[in-house]
Amino acid sequence: MSTEGVQAAVKHLSRVSYNVNDEHLLSEMDVFLQCRNNYIVRYISCALQPTYLAIIMEYAPGGSLHAVMERYPSLDIKTIRCFMHNIISGLFFLHEKNVVHCDIKPHNMLLGVEGVCKLSDFGSCLNVDRVVQDNDQFDVRGTAVYMAPEVAKGETCTAASDIFSLGVSLLELVTGRLPWVWTKNAPEDRDVTDMSALYRNSVRFIQYLCKDYVAVEIPDDMHASAAALARSCCEMDPCSAPGEPAALQPLPDQLSTYKQQRESQSVFIAASFAHRWPSLYTTIIVFPFFSS
């Protein structure tokens, strides 16, 4: 708490985990400090210490959606709709800034005042402009059970991989459990046969994801529009670009304008979304599941 009585949170990040020098680290933090949006936890300042980076940020009194799920396993679909609308708005803002979150999951979705849900924890974020300029090699980033297949295989995180993680998070919020199941490619004599045990073994999970032993399953009885959104987000092959779902309706004038603005964004934005789903954000807006 500051001398003025304003509450803030402080997060410590080990400098050892960053394969970048001090100048680059502070440069990335400068990018995050400029990411001001109602649906992103506000970063106030930072301090570089010998062994860690201290990040001072907005305090979110409601905790994470992961903690909320533990207290209330069956969230109301309207509540989930509101939360996801907030998170999608924040994520789109980051992607417009050429920032990839790299660790989208309910743990990093925090509830602020008045129940507004905000994206947090930028410890794994990538500034795409710097990646392109420096041609850096990064370690695998993110959390295994929310990870896109291409990231598990060692590819750099993109907006498309954020979208995959968003789909996994949506499924977990709606069903109360992670959505992974064994595929027909999984051998019977595999080292781990229990899915719950696999979730606790990040290294093994990543190996199995790379080998196509596991895949996302969408329940048959799930809310139709939410299921359609999750299915498109969780396309296992990022190079596959399925057509727009039948749930799409003609866009009102204001949404058509929004779509044109989005399509005029940088090559990075257009290329990343085309990999997994070219009309993700437009479709989210017109889905009945996310309409007001």
From TrEMBL:
Residue ranges that the Swiss-Prot or TrEMBL entry lists as coiled coil: none
Domain annotation Protein kinase: ranges: 1-255
Gene3D superfamilies: Transferase(Phosphotransferase) domain 1
Keyword Oxidoreductase: no
Key words, A-Z: ATP-binding, Kinase, Nucleotide-binding, Serine/threonine-protein kinase, Transferase
Recorded GO MF terms: ATP binding; protein serine/threonine kinase activity
InterPro entries: Kinase-like_dom_sf, Prot_kinase_dom, Ser/Thr_kinase_AS
Pfam families to which the protein is assigned, alphabetical: Pkinase (PF00069)
Keyword match Lyase: no
Protein known as: Protein kinase domain-containing protein
